[in-house]
Amino acid sequence: MISDRQNARQWAAATWEEVQGLDRARTVAILPVGAIEAHGPHLPLATDVVIAEAMARRGAEMLAARGVQAVVLPALAYTVADFADGFPGTISIRPTTLTTLVTDVADGLARHGIAALAIANAHLDPAHLAALHAAVDVGPIPIVFPDLTRRPWGSRLGAEFKSGACHAGRFEGSVVLAERREWVRQEIARQLPALEVSLAAAIREGKPTFEEAGLDRAYCGDPAAATADEGRETIETLGGILADAVIEAGVVAVPEP
Ligand SMILES: [Zn+2]
């Protein structure tokens, strides 16, 4: 919904005087973190950016509804994506670059008195997740990072996600359909056979690339089953995970209901 998009405060669209006017000691800034990475023959390279931005926006709205001021930062599009590096279009950066960048962004927020940083992330490359956790460990302000591969967060998501077949399939395709229908090659998606390969299991077995994990076209799961309705439900769940993580972390004051 258009109005939903406008409800979340956007750091990029704010003026400095508007930021000055925030109750910054009670404000959490949300950083969407995505990737530029192959997502099957049917989804855009920026799929994880689209998902992270939707999670951030919905999370900010849910926090606002609970009396917590949240502002959505411009998304970080580049990250570690070595699993997909064999596919044209993927741009992978070093883990240390990501950790430093997130830490520096947190430093900038800290200098201006923002209470906490929250990370909205749906890119699950293990080296990427480790680099984000490294930033959490050294952040100058509290950094809240609900890692979807850890308890309790991932258990709220659908069956495909929990099966580990969670790259460019039904789960991710549904969110992109809900957010950017025009970026989905639906005529291709409808033809793709389901591929029940667990990327999570392949990662545990130490396989370092999509090719070795059996994702010959950089997807697994069931792309043809994606729907915009499921995408909207998934965005509700992702936003709820982010909002709950911020509130449970106790990093900003929450008004009594
Ligand atoms: Zn993805």
Give the SSE map:
Elements: H1 2-7, E1 9-10, H2 16-20, E2 27-33, H3 47-65, E3 69-72, H4 95-111, E4 116-121, H5 126-138, E5 143-144, H6 159-163, H7 170-180, H8 186-189, H9 199-204, H10 210-213, H11 228-249
Parallel strand pairs: 1-3, 2-3, 2-4, 4-5
Helix pairs in contact: 3-7, 3-11, 4-5, 7-11
Question: In words, what does this structure look like?
Answer:
The N terminus is likely disordered. 44% of the residues lie in helices and 8% in strands. With 257 residues, it is α/β, with parallel strands linked by helices. A 5-stranded parallel sheet has the order 1-3-2-4-5. α7 packs across α11. β4, α5 and β5 form a beta-alpha-beta unit. It is globular and about 50 Å long. Bound molecules: zinc ion. The site of zinc ion has 6 residues, from α3.
Name the ligand types. Answer: zinc ion
Distance between the termini: 27 Å
Shape: globular
Strand ordering within the main sheet: 1-3-2-4-5
List keywords for this structure.
257 residues; 11 helices; 8% strand; globular
Quick recap:
The protein has 257 residues and is an alpha/beta fold.
